[in-house]
Structure formats: C-alpha cells, structure tokens
Amino acid sequence: MRLLMWWSGRALSSAATLLGVSVLIFAAVRLMPGGFAETVLGPFATAGQKADLAARYGLDQPVFMQYGHWLTAVTGGDFGVSMISRQPVGAELVARLPVTAELTVLAVAASVLLGVPLGVLTAVRARPGGGGAAGRLLSGLGVSVPEFVLGSLVVFVFSRYALGLEVGSWVPLTRDPAGNLTTMILPAAVLSVFSISVTARTTRDAVMGVLVEPYVTAAVGRGESPWFIVRHHILRNAATPVVTLLGATTAYLLGGALIVEHVFNLPGVGSYIVQAVGRRDYAVVQAGVLLAAGVFIVMNVLIDLLVGALDPRMGVMAGRRS
Amino acid sequence: MILELDDVTVTFTAGAPLRRVHLDAMKHVSLEVAEGETLGLVGESGSGKTTTSRVALGLQRPTTGTVRFDGRPFPKRRRELAGRMQAVLQHPHWSLNPRMRVGQSVAEPLDVLGRPMDGRADGRAGGAVGEMLEQVGLEAGFADRYPHELSGGQRQRVSIARALVTRPAFIVFDEAVSALDVSVQVQILNLIKDLQAEYGFSALFISHDLGAVRYVADRIAVMRKGEIVETADTATFYTHPSHEYSKQLLEAL
Amino acid sequence: MSLLSVRNLVIDYARTRALDGADLEVTQGETVGLVGESGSGKSTLGSAAGRLLPQSARRGEGEVLVAGEPVFELPATRLRHLRRRHLGFVFQDPIASLDPTMRVGAQLGLVLGRGGDVSFHLGRVRLDDPRVVRSYPHQLSGGMAQRVAIAMAMATAPDLLIADEPTAALDSQVREEVSNMVFSLAAEAGTSILWLSHDLPAVARRCDRVAVMYGGRVVESGPARQVLGNPAHPYTAALAGSAPAAAAHGVRLEPVPGRPPVLTGPAEGCAFAPRCPFAEERCEHERPAPVRIREQDVLCHRAADLEGTLAQRRSAPEVSA
Amino acid sequence: MRKLDRLSIGGLACLLILVLFALGSLFGIGGDPDAIVGPRLQPPGPGWWLGTDNLGRSVLPRVMEGVGTTLLLSSIAVLVTAALSATFGIVAGYRGGYLNELVMRLVEVLYSFPAIVLAILVAAVLGPGQFAALASIVLVTIPLMTRLVRAAAVAVAQRDYVTSAVISGARLPRVLGRHVLPNVAGTIAVQGTYALSVGIAVEGGLSFLGFGVQPPQASLGVLIQQGGTYMIAAPWLILGPGVVLVVAILAINVVGDGLRDRLEPRETRSLT
Amino acid sequence: ATGTATSPTAAQESAAPGYLAVADQALPTGGALNLQVHIDSGAATGYDPQLADVATTWQLLSLSYETLVTVGPDFSVQPLLAEKWDTPDPKTYVFHLRKGVKFANGREMTADDVVGSLKRLLASKGVWRGQLGPVKSVTKDGDDQVKVTLSEPYTPFLTALANVPAAILPMKEIDDKSVDPATTLLGTGPYVVQDHRQDVSWTFKRNDKYWNQGKPNADTVNITIAPEEAARIAALQNGGAALATLGNVDSSTMLAGAKDVQVVTQATTDFYYLMLNSLKPGSKLADPKVRQAIAIALDDQQIADVALGGKGKPTAITPAGLPGACDPAALPSAGKSLDDAKALLAEAGAQNLSFTLSIFSTEPAPAVAQVVQQNLQQAGITVKIEQMDEASWSGKVYGKAPADFDAALSWFAGYADPGMVTKWWNPETAGFNVGFMKPDKDLNTLIDAAGKEPAGAARDKALTDVCAKADADAQMIPLVTRPATVAFRTDALSPSLYAAEGYGNVLRLVADARVKKTQ
Ligand SMILES: Nc1ncnc2c1ncn2[C@@H]1O[C@H](COP(=O)(O)OP(=O)(O)OP(=O)(O)O)[C@@H](O)[C@H]1O
Ligand SMILES: Nc1ncnc2c1ncn2[C@@H]1O[C@H](COP(=O)(O)OP(=O)(O)OP(=O)(O)O)[C@@H](O)[C@H]1O
Ligand SMILES: [Mg+2]
Ligand SMILES: [Mg+2]
C-alpha cells in the first residue's frame, strides 16, 4: 500500500519535475542572447525573412501559446522539427541516442568495474601512516586530466600510429558489434577516466566509513577473508553514496560525452544538443533537455529504489523521521 | 503528573514489501509518572519497553491513544521542552556523536539551555562537566577523549552524565546500567537517588535487572508483549506480585 | 591442554594502558568468567585473544596463544584460519555488530554457509518468531539483537567462545535460557567459554573458573565459587559486596570507594592500592607477583595476611544463590 | 583527532607553493602575461623559460597568472557549492518529507540542463566573464553534492546521538550543525575536491566557448584548452599549465582525502 | 596572388601557375573520395542556392549546381554552362548556352531554365541579388541564348554570376512544384546527393548524365562533418579522410610528421575587419578622428604575422590578392605613426579611450582581438575583450539597431572581384550594418563609380579612391586576409586546388580529383 503510494507520489513529482524543466528550458532558450533569426538566417537577413521564418515555426505567437502548442505536441510524442535540418527532432534523437547511451553505459561500467575496486583497495589499504598512497595518487590523477586534453592526445596518437584501435570512425552496434566496440573503446575510456577516479574516491570515503563499524570487526572475528567481508558487508553498506554518485555521474557523463563525441566525431546526442545550442535551434534544445531530464528522473527513481533495497534504513520505506 | 500515557498503541510494519507484517509494539498502554517519582519498567526482551520510552519522549507518535507531558500534549516545537527531559538510550555505541569529544557531548544539554559553563568553553575538564564526569566515576580527563576510546561501560556513563548534567524534570534510563560492573552500578544508582532527592526529578527506569530496579524505583510496571500486565509499588511488587508473569520474573531473581 | 593462554600481555592505546601484564589461561572445555571493574580491560583482553584490537592498540609485551599458536605472530591467512577454527566472538554491543543492511536470516545464513538451518539456530536462542528471520537489525529490540549475535557466534561451533557481556540486555528469564543454552551446547561440544560479565551470581553459578580484572591485570583467578564466595584479593571482595541485587529495598549500598585507575604506563605498584583498605607502603611501589592462596592465584602483597579476613567482610551471602 | 598524514602534508605544501606562484604574478615576477615578447611558438629558452604561445607571449607569466585565476575562481565556486549543498542536503536529508522532495526535484531540474546550456544562460543573464563562470561552476556541481550529502544525512539522522540532542531540546541549527554536519563533513570534503576538479574543467570549457575568463586573462583552463590544440606542435604550451594543473588537483585531492580521514576520529580497521 | 604551400612536394612544384595542385590525369578514374569539413551547411532556407549566403553552403551546393560562368585560377571568369558570351556594349551580355546539358533527372537544360533562374534570383530576398548589380532585364534570345541587360555598366557582373547563388535551377520542375529547391538538390553539376544527415555527413554519387564527358573522376564523394579539428587531423593521419579543411593556422605543424599528408594553404579573399560602432549614443567612436586614430594604431602586419601565423596578408577594403585591388601599404593610415594617432585622439578629447571589443570565440578571432588589443595599447587605448559564442555575438552585433556594442570583430568573404565587397561599406545596400554604421555619401558615390568603371587602370584608380575614403571613414576597418588550410593524403588522392579562392570553395575542383586508392 505504502509502496503504491510511493510510486504514485513519485510519478506525480516526476511529472511535476518534467513540467518544471519544460517551462524552464522553454523560457531559457528564448532568453539566450542571439535570437534564432540572426543565428539561423545570418547577418544579411531582412526583416521580412525573419518574419517568414518566425511564422513558419510559430515563433510569432505569444510565448505562452507557443509553449502550449509545444507541450501538447510533446505529450503526443512530437518533439517538433529542427529549424536547421527541417527533420523531426524525435527521429534524430532516437538515431543518435545509441551512441551516447553506449558511451555512457561503457563509462559507467568502467567506473563500476575499476573505480569501485580501486576505491575499496585504497580504503582497505589505508593506514594511519599513509599507505594506499599509490591508489590515492592514481585516483587523483584521473580527475586532473581534462577530457579534452586526454581525448585530443588519444585521438592524435591512435590516428598517427596504428595501435589496433580505431579513432574517427564510427560503426553502428547493430551493423558490426566487434567493429563498433573497437571504435567505442577509446572514447569510452577517455570519458570514463574522470568518473573512474571520482567513483574510486567516493567509494574510498564510503568504505572508510564502513570500516569503523563494529560489524566489520565482528566479521573479521569470525575469520572471514577480506574479500568475503568486502563482498558481503562492506560493498552493501558503502553502496548508497556510490550508487547515488553513479546515477549522478550519468548526468555528468552525458555532458562529458559531448566533448568526447566532439573530439572523436561520434554522432551522439551530446554533440547534437551542443550544435543546436550554438545555432539556437529551439526545438532541438528543448527536446534534448527534456530527454535528459527524463533520463535523470528515471535514473533517480531507480537509484532511490536501489538505495532502499541496499540499505533498509534509507530509501522508499524509511520515510521521514518520526 | 509529569507524564501520562493514555491507552497508547504503537504499530510497526516490517518485512518485505509484499509480506508486510504488522506488529503492535505497544497495546493499549496506560501509564503515569508523578513528579519526583521513579517508575521502573520491566519485562521480557522485545516487550515494548524501549518503544514505550520513545513514546514518552515524544520521539514516536502513538498509532492511537494520547500522551501528555506536563499535563499537555507534546508541543509542535520541541524547543519548548528544552531542558525538561533527558534520556539514556539503550545503545551506548550509537548514543554518542563519534566526532564530538566526551566533554562536548556532556556539555551539550547545558549549551542548549544557554547555560554558560564554568570552566573552559570547549567543555573540557573543569566546571560542571568535569564534576559530572567525576560523579559518574570517570576522571575529568575523559572529557578530552572521543567515544571510540572508551570502554562500553565508560561510554554508558558518559551518556548518563549527559542526561543528568542539566538536572531535567524527567529522565528515561533505558538499560542505563546494564554494561556496568556492580560497584559502578551502585555508584550510579546512588547518584540517581541522591540527585533525585536533591532536585526531585521523575524517571522512567527501564531495566532487566530487577535488583537495580528495586533499588531505585518507587513504582514498578511490568510489560509483556506490548501490554502492561501489572503496576505496583516497589515494596508490594517484590513481596506480593499479583500477575503470574511478575511471579515468574521474580522467581528468576 | 591450554586453549587460550595469555601471558603477561601489555596493550597500550594512544593514551591509556588497557592491559598491564595480564595473565589468563583457558583450557579445553573449561568455562571461565572474566569479571572486573568497567574499564579494567576485559574487552581489550577478549579482543586481543583474536587479535581484533583497533589499529591504535600496541602490544608492548607478552603473548597470546590460541591452541598453541602465537596469535600476534601469525600471518594473515593462518590467523584467519585460527579464528575460523577456534574462536567465536559475541561483542559487547550486539546490535552494532550486526550488518544493518542485511536481514537477520541472511546474515546468519552467511555464517552457516549453504545448507545451514537458520531457524534452528535462531530457535536455540529462543527467537522462534519467523518475523525475526526477515527483520533488519534496527527492527529488533536490544535483547533480540543480542540473541542473534549469540546465535551467530555459536553457529560455527567454535573451540573457544569469547562472549563480551552476552546477556546484559536480556531480561532475567531469557538470560537464564540463553545462558543455559550456551553453556549446555558448550558442554556438549566441548567448547571453552570466556564469559565477560558483570553478573557475578551468574558467573559464580555457571563458570568453572573466574578471573577478576583490575587495572589491566588479572588480580585473582581460581574456581568460580571459591573466588566469589571466598575472595583472596581485596578488590574481589569489594566487588562481590556491592551487588545491588543483594540489597533489600531501602537499604543503601556502598560502592567500592574511590575511582578506578586510568593507567598511562605500567602501574608502579598495585593498581588497587589507593582504594584498598589494607594497602601498605609497598603496595604503592612494588608490583605484586602472583601468589597462590588456596586454589586461587592472587596478585596481592598481602594476600597471605588477609586470608580469612576478607570472607568475613562479605555482606552479600546471596552471591552464590 | 589524528594528524594529517605525510602524503596530505606534501599536498598542502604543493598548494602553498602554487599560491606563492600565483601571488608572484601579482607582483609582476615572471613578466607581463599579456605582452608579446618573441616569435610565436618558441620552445623554452632564455626570455621565455616555458616557451612562447601562439601569439608570442611568454608562457611562464601566463601560467602564473592562470594558477591564481583558476585557484581563486574554483575555490570560491566550490566553497559556495559546498555551503549550498551542505545546507540543502542536510536539511532535506534530516527533515525528509516535502522539503526533501522539493529540494531533490529542484536538484533534478538543475541536473537536466546540460552544463553548456546552463553556462550560456548564466552568461546571458550575468554577462560573460569570471562571475558567470563562477555561477556556472556552482550550478553544475551543486546537484551531485547535494544528493550525496543528503544520502549521508539520512543515515546520520537516525543515530541515537541525534535523538539525544533532540531530546535535549536542541534547536534545528544546532542539531544540524553540531551533529549532522560533522558526520557528513567527510562526504563534503571528498565531493568538494571533486567539485574543484569539475570546476576547473568547466572553467576551461566555458572559456573555450567564450563565456569564461575573458582574453587576454589567463586561467589554467584557458591555457590547457589552448595547449591542447598545440599539443603536438608545441608541447611546452600544455606542459607548463598541465603539470601545474595536475599538481594542483592531485594536491587538492590528496589533501581532501587527508582531511576526510582527519575528520574521522575513529580508526578504520584492517581486514586482517 | 599565389598560395603558400608548406613543405612543397614534387606534385606541388609541377603544379601549373595559379594552382596549388593539379590532379594527375594519368591516374585511373572512379573510386570513392572521403572528405572532412568542419561545418555543415546550416541555412534555415534549406538547400535553395539562391538564398545561400555563406561559403560553407556554397561549397557543398557547388557539387550539384552549376552557374553560367565560373571562376578560373587567378580569378579569371571562364565559361561553364555558357559556352561563351558576348558583350555588345557594357550594359548587355549575351550568353550562348552549352548544348547537351542535362539536369540530374535527365531533362535537358533550356534557356527558360536560365532565364527563370536569374529572374527568380532577382525577385528573391537573397543577398546575392544585390551583387548581380543593376539588372534591367533577362530575356531568352532564341533557344540557346540568354540576354541580360543592365541599366548601367557594372563590372563585377560576370564574377557575380560565377557563384553558386546564381546557379541554374530546374525551373520547369520548380514552377510546376514537383521540386522544392529548399529540400531537393537538382542541378546540372557533377554529383547528385544520395544521402545527407544534418551535421553528420553527405554522400554524393556521380551524376551519370553530367554534360562534361569523363567527369567527374571519383564515383562517390563522402563528406563527413567533423567540427573538432583534432578529429579531422586524426582522420587525415589514419587515412579516414583523403582531404580535410583545417581551421588552425598552425595545423600544418601538427601534421608535420604524418606520412603521406600534405598541408597547403590556399589564399582567399576573405578578410578580417574591425567594426567600430559610430551609432551608439555617447560613444567616442562616433568621432571620425578617434576611428582614424584606431586605424592608424592597428598594425596589420603584426596581426597577420602573429594572429594568423604569417599566413594572412594586410588588406584594404578591396581584398588583397585580387587583381586590381589597392595596395594596403598605400592607404593614408598606413603612412601615419603612433604619434599621429595620439594627436588625433588628443584632438578629439579621447586620450584615455577605452572600449569593449566583442568577438566570437572561434579561433583565430580571439588571437586577432588580442593583437588588436596590444596594438591599441601602444596608442594609449584600452580595449576590453568580450568573448562569446557565435550566436550570442550575432545577436549582439546584428540583433538591434542601433547596436549596443562598442567594437566588434568579424570577417567577410571577399568574393572574386575587388569591387564586390566594397558594396558592404554602404549600409543601405548591405543592410546588416545599418545598426552601427553611418552611411557616407561620398564613399557611396565612389563605390558606385568604381562599379561602373570597366576593368583597367581607371578602375584601379577608382578603387584606390574607394580604399582611401573607406580608410578615412574607418567605421569598418579591414585588417588581414583569412587563409584556408587544406590537407590531403598524397597516397589517397591527387586533387586539383586553386592557389587562391574568392568564394571560399575548397571543393571547387573536386570533380577533377583522382582517387589513388579507396579506403
Ligand atoms: N523500527 C521498528 N520497526 C519494526 N519493528 C520494531 C521497530 N522497533 C521495534 N520493533 C519491534 O517492536 C517490538 C518492541 O521493541 P522494543 O525495542 O520496544 O522492545 P524492548 O522491550 O525495549 O526490548 P529489549 O529489552 O530487548 O530492548 C519488538 O518486537 C521489535 O522487534
Ligand atoms: N580504542 C581505544 N582507544 C583508546 N582507549 C581505549 C580504547 N578502547 C578502550 N580504551 C580504554 O582502555 C581501557 C580498557 O577498556 P576495555 O574496553 O577493555 O574495558 P572493559 O573492561 O571492557 O570495560 P567495560 O566493562 O566498561 O566494557 C579503558 O580505560 C578504556 O578507556
Ligand atoms: Mg529496548
Ligand atoms: Mg567491555
């Protein structure tokens, strides 16, 4: 019953969030300096041309009317038409989503598979004397190299010397999974360096917090192996912040993906949105941001559920303080 | 009456979402604690003693029934009760802030009341805090320590010191002396009695140790499976228990 | 054969000496009660037996042998093996020693391994309610959590169970039952028990031997009834005399006067000297060496002189009841 | 409370040196960062100890100026983020209920905006420049920190010492400030140093888009963005600022971890 | 005007004059050509060539559309769809249409298509309409001749016809609405579009009905849009692209060690210019003396050397490098010194002049701006640089009239005739600068006069006057030309490239390129 209530509450608040995002982004694109007309039509455009363009995309109507039309269309699954390509935005997003999704999934996977162990290791090895220093330095290094620089370097090196992995080409996963992987590994690696480090450091923090708990001592006292303790007790108890982080990192990765997509020239959502912002292609920006919002909302619901499942004191059922 | 519980029921839900179990931790409990009185609360493990104390402290809202403190329902803003009540909670491990020195923890209730502490401002040795620590059998030097540097009994005594330091009107002791050796137990129980004689506070004294309860309590309530099965004066209770369960309890003593 | 043997163990924390040359023997199948003032080092001694001390703890001197193996010298895997084979712990704060994110059943299942009968082990500590299996630790009462902790420690049938106040949070009835259970299971399986407790009557009743700690040393040890009924050390006598359970209603009990010592280094003399009514000059400066009084090993300069006098001071004849 | 470990002290020393370095540029040590002093893209040599950039300016004074700009900008931004996230996260985590929902939804809304959109909007409202960069960094880093602080606060809120404080009648600010905050401070320290790295990256990205630090002022982000394009042709352009950036972030991270460990008075246990 | 090529190779040296490279005719035809460019055509007007106003769009559309005449090496006008033309008098042009020209749909091009196209252009709102000059009428003169009559002589007319907006469209289909030029590319050019994903890629296939037998050489042209320089460099290095346009003036050094990659710099007539807003109320820049002082203080040579790595050239308003363009060194401001500038400022009471320079962040604009800043500092002028993305920049500069910026930096396409771009100095013709530029009657008269003057010494003289007048007016101050860098793989491609380009069209000679091997 409470679960049902939670779900319906969550659905409602998600809808409210989406609505808020839609209002904000709609207002935001119109607040951005440099109107679509100057940008899209160029400096030579006459007033008449601008008016024509405005009329074509309904931009001559009062803003709230525009919003109303847009919202009705969006709820009907129609995200509008790009002012640049004149193609439906929805279709283009769908076409580009796999690239970004794959990048993000690979990077998140790398964060989990490398960042979490690294964090656990640096925490478990942390001694008052400063052991685990190598791991700490390593994870510090990851956050200090900007994606742009790392990406450019990787692109340059891998394109000049045949090192086995492709850069600058992209093969759809559906066409050639193996080929797709060889082209995606590098961008995903570049993208994940940062999140691996952040994951490692957050994991370290969380694990250190767990290591002081008596139940860890109890497990040690039972003669359990470190690996066993990590697996059964520490990971679970340290999971909340890490899971929260990973969910949130997805948002960051989407932003990072845009840089990586740029450097590696991958046709993903990130670069689509950025280009659209650059050209003030309203429909695309609106749809892109709404998509991102949708993704985050779903992610957050999942995270809350996961956190609730991992730690009964938190999450769905724990509710508020009595 | 400083505390009145009137027909209080508390229901918990637990278990996996689809196999939810409802549990009445308290069933129609009515209790009263008079000014200056110590009510001993005994009963088997899991019978709802801690829950009762949480209700009495206003931490747990009853599912049904009413609670009155100082003759009034719990105010919306807890602040109004500042300095009126204190508690020694059951788990000494969790009851002290791991990042606060013992002295700071003990000084906190004073701080809250805005009573400037004599002695050093950081609540280290000296002043009311140091004195209080010494009264519970800890050297004033313990004020400098962090909770994790204490033994179980020492930690429990710090909690007690914190509860007593402001001489509140009502104190809950939930298994407050269970981790103490008998000698220290006696010391603490004497302290409670002495302070009570001096300041006349009321107390809800929860314990499994019927000896200790007998030593401090004026009246005794017996709980079983969420219900109060008997309430009696201490003397009466220990000599002529009326309920079957009370008799069982006393037999074991 | 001696299962646990602690010899002249010295443990220092950052600013406290917790053990100041403690000696303790637990032989196979024996049940030993460890009693003493709060802060005297019982938990430290218990943890030291499994080398479970916090990192800030330093072993100054002495050694701990479990099943003949020097615990402090063992490499990690051997140590782990030793803990698993020989040792079982119940910690002082049971609820904190349970993983808060795991249902009780799952935790116990983890200890038992595949095929373990969780409800059987919970039943042994009188937690038959099926709800408990599915509960998280924070949903249990203090006493229930403690029983779960005991069940987990007993589940692997260790050679030596080190139980730190395992029944402190239990009501008298359950305490009896759980204690009975633990001791009878131990007797069956030949398990030795080191029972850290404040409950002197229970220790007297159940344990073969008792060791009394004061100021980081075991000041008296011997057969339980002997030690508690006829103490040879002034501290033991004082301790035994102050049980509140012993007092009739309205009678004011007197604790041992003075405060326990907080050691920062080796005690110069007898740590109890400042509080001891029988203290002499040398008690202050000379560390007492063990002497044997009747069946007891005692750390007291005046043990021989006092023989007989201490028993008369007992004001609590119910101790052995 | 434990002392900082050796690694953290090393990090602190590095930071100190960097601050001195930045201060040096205020007093003109190293030269005028904007002046064209030699031919373009010269490798390090006398007159330009770290080489010259694509306009023939000496890289050394630019790096010195850049360190100052970046450290100042990002640390202010991170302080603001930390303060806001701590407040929102703690209040939301402790209070729960509607307040929690509201804060979390707001954070979600912020999250939904890609950094670049946010940045452009902020720059539109505030005008491009350091202030816009600062605001953007704050907006970009706030959501994650708030969520993590909240998660930590939820756990702390259920501890008995919080209950004890509540029983004592402590006011909300006290409960939050004395009990919840110190126990989530580790999270804030770790996430703060992380936010600092993000901040520097965002600052660089913004400058690249044109919304951040305005030319000719140097910041590490700007220098690295530029250096990145000349990475192969003139590696010294990225080497100077790159090394400084890596050292700065490493130092900050290491100090952050050290701080986190210091804030934890309890000892972690080894698993053997 | 010849382009400079870094690391000249054998192929380069043997190139004909006016060319950076000439495709090796000995190579077989066919194959696929993979190109990368940094930006897609992004016009809101779609593919309609008549409305296209930026070089990037012209470049892509030129693969499918053709014009009556075209530009040869060194900016000479050469026949294309018109085999030849007569100029009976300076106001009349008669074009003899090439026979056998077919649109990609197989229909033969007729004089009606030509007349219709030109009329459509003249009736359109496109920018290029103005560049065609004072056209009075366009008429069909028999089945294969078209006559254009001007109301007065206009020298750049043919050059203006040589650009993509004047392309010949399939007017029959457009008129019967079966083809919408905004969404369909249907021209007479060497290639037809097979696929276009906005901002991702184009695929062009050989037009089998192309009139010029044997051309185009490559069967397929794949164009990838790669906004990031690093990506294009990578594609060149690993062979993903046979040819790519590069944005950074130093990219050649990046590619220095790459095997088989040749980087060439194509000179263009595009040039950077500084806008000084003389219409902003209260602005010191309204004073011509102040503007002249700024023009004097600017060191074009330094801008070219430093900001453009020596690849650009100082220019007057007639783009440097075009035949007949005036000599920037002979401009009045070029002969003056910093002291003169300071004196002018003092005269105008603007000693502590300080203003904001608005620029977009695309390189090398920030570099140019920073050198400008350094230059003006010498004259005691403080320049604050305000950098933003291109859209915000256009909003700020073109968004409203009067515009509220102080100064701004941008570049023009310089076109293929020295007189064409001078038109933009008349805000009433140009339109885009009405918000910040006061029309100067004298200047306008000079510009018109130069337009009428037939090519020759007199025209050069007229243009010199225009240059001097514009220099004195100094509302828009030309700075330096903006070169184009192109890199290609010598093992994959043998391209033809002009040494200099007026319409920013790197792909102009794509149909000539021979593929060496296909990746
Ligand atoms: N948060 C909770 N959720 C679900 N059940 C709970 C919760 N807290 C307590 N209970 C249940 O309520 C019952 C009463 O618990 P309570 O803690 O009041 O017992 P108690 O009398 O204090 O026991 P003990 O002496 O062992 O501490 C127990 O069965 C317990 O499992
Ligand atoms: N982690 C620690 N750091 C510093 N000092 C400690 C630590 N743990 C215990 N101590 C100190 O060591 C002494 C012995 O503690 P220990 O926990 O062994 O006592 P105990 O006999 O178990 O007492 P109790 O009966 O109260 O549990 C005490 O004075 C205590 O303050
Ligand atoms: Mg309880
Ligand atoms: Mg203990």
UniProtKB/TrEMBL annotation, chain A:
InterPro entries for the chain: BPD_transp_1_N, MetI-like, MetI-like_sf
Localization per record: Cell membrane
Chain segments annotated as transmembrane: 103-124, 136-158, 178-198, 242-264, 284-307
UniProt keyword list: Cell membrane, Membrane, Transmembrane, Transmembrane helix, Transport
PROSITE patterns for the chain: ABC_TM1
Domain annotation ABC transmembrane type-1: ranges: 97-308
Stated name of the protein: ABC transporter permease
Lineage: Bacteria, Bacillati, Actinomycetota, Actinomycetes, Streptosporangiales
From TrEMBL, chain B:
Domain of life per record: Bacteria
GO molecular function terms attached to this record: ATP binding
InterPro entries for this protein: AAA+_ATPase, ABC_transp_ATP-bind, ABC_transporter-like_ATP-bd, ABC_transporter-like_CS, P-loop_NTPase
Organism: Nonomuraea insulae
Domain ABC transporter stretches: 3-250
Pfam families: ABC_tran
UniProt keywords, alphabetically: ATP-binding, Nucleotide-binding, Transport
Database matches in Gene3D superfamilies: P-loop containing nucleotide triphosphate hydrolases
Family: Belongs to the ABC transporter superfamily.
PROSITE patterns named in the record: ABC_TRANSPORTER_1, ABC_TRANSPORTER_2
Protein name stated in the entry: ABC transporter ATP-binding protein
Keyword ATP-binding: yes
Keyword DNA damage: no
Transmembrane regions listed in the UniProt entry: none
TrEMBL record, chain C:
Main localization category: membrane
Transmembrane segments: none
Annotated ranges, domain ABC transporter: 4-240
Catalytic activity: Ni(2+)(out) + ATP + H2O = Ni(2+)(in) + ADP + phosphate + H(+)
Keyword terms of this UniProt record: ATP-binding, Cell membrane, Ion transport, Membrane, Nickel, Nickel transport, Nucleotide-binding, Translocase, Transport
Keyword Transport: yes
One Pfam family recorded for the sequence: ABC_tran
Binding partners and assembly: The complex is composed of two ATP-binding proteins (NikD and NikE), two transmembrane proteins (NikB and NikC) and a solute-binding protein (NikA).
Protein name per UniProt: Nickel import system ATP-binding protein NikD
UniProtKB/TrEMBL annotation, chain D:
Membrane topology: Multi-pass membrane protein
Record keywords: Cell membrane, Membrane, Transmembrane, Transmembrane helix, Transport
Family matches, as Pfam families: BPD_transp_1
InterPro entries to which the protein is assigned, alphabetical: BP-dependent_transpt_permease, MetI-like, MetI-like_sf
Cell membrane as UniProt keyword: yes
Keyword Glycosyltransferase listed: no
Superkingdom of origin organism: Bacteria
Domain ABC transmembrane type-1: from-to ranges: 67-256
Regions that span the bilayer: 71-94, 106-125, 131-149, 233-256
Main location: membrane
Subcellular location, record wording: Cell membrane
Family annotation (PANTHER family): OLIGOPEPTIDE TRANSPORT SYSTEM PERMEASE PROTEIN APPC, PEPTIDE ABC TRANSPORTER PERMEASE PROTEIN
Family: Belongs to the binding-protein-dependent transport system permease family.
Protein name, per record: ABC transporter permease
Organism in which the protein naturally occurs: Nonomuraea insulae
